Amino acid sequence: MHTTTAPFTLEAGKERRRGEPVVFHWRGTSPEFGEIEVRYPVPPRAAQSVTTEVRGGHLPTTTLEARGMHVDEAEKPSLNGATLRVDGGVVYAQRNRWGFTKRARSLRLKYLGDRYRLTAVNGRSYTLTREPDSEDPGVVVTVKPSGLGGRRLSVSVRGRALPADIALAALFAGVDRRVLTRGGAVRAGFGRIFHAAADSAMV
Fold it and tell me: Which of 77, 82, 159, 161 has the fewest Cβ atoms nearer than 10 Å?
């Protein structure tokens, strides 16, 4: 159901149970979609795996899991080697690692016939766009820091949102999105070149 959505705020926090690692979270309440919680890394944590999850309110449970040796020490998953699911269904994801513009570097998603684009505004802010089609004009969800200290995120919506729109937009607050920025893409590119050269030298 498409819904006009008022702005809301997510606040940062963390919790730790005895004998378990710290779990970080963003929490807030949308008047239309209820309580929302983004948490990472989701316990129990398997080797070479780290997951961020969104739950709550009227949203579908949404997760992003990254696997590989590069995530062993990570607090939250990156977009590399990641699997995204909404309500248990896999979301198709693709991005141009060598894109020159912000839009070209966007993460492109497809879920239940809807096409999305996750774009970095800068290192802290981002937009999630559901692209228009013949039946719907689409929606843009903007997530950006609010206030001092970086412990609050402001979420605003232009257009009539679906539950999956809000779940996906909130999810990426708990994901390492640096590869979508120019600096992050350059560093990742040099990293791939370095590892390729190292692998060649070992052959």
Answer: 159
CA 47 to chain centre: 21
Locate tokens 């513009």: which residue? 101
Are 19 and 43 spatial neighbours (Cβ–Cβ below 8 Å)? no
Predicted model pTM: 0.89
Residues 6 or more apart whose CB falls under 8 angstroms from that of 176 comprise 74, 76, 77, 78, 79
Q: Is 179 exposed, middle or buried (0-12, 13-18, 19+ CB in 10 A)?
A: buried
* The predicted structure's pLDDT at residue 198: 29
CA distance 147 to 97: 32
Rounded Cα–Cα distance for residues 166 and 116 (Å): 12
Identity (one letter) of the amino acid at 36?
Answer: I
Q: 35: closest CA among 58, 62, 4, 52? A: 58
Q: What is the pLDDT of residues 33-45, one digit of tens each?
A: 999 999 999 988 8
Measured at the CA of 10, the angle between CA 41 and CA 175, to 5 degrees, comes to 35
Which residue would you say has higher pLDDT here, 167 or 183?
Answer: 167
Give me 137's structure tokens: 């004009």
At 56, which amino acid appears? Answer: G
Q: For the chain, give percent helix, strand, coil, nearest 5.
A: 20, 40, 35
Q: Kindly give the residue spans of alpha helices, DSSP state H, lying in the chain.
A: 102-105, 163-171, 182-202
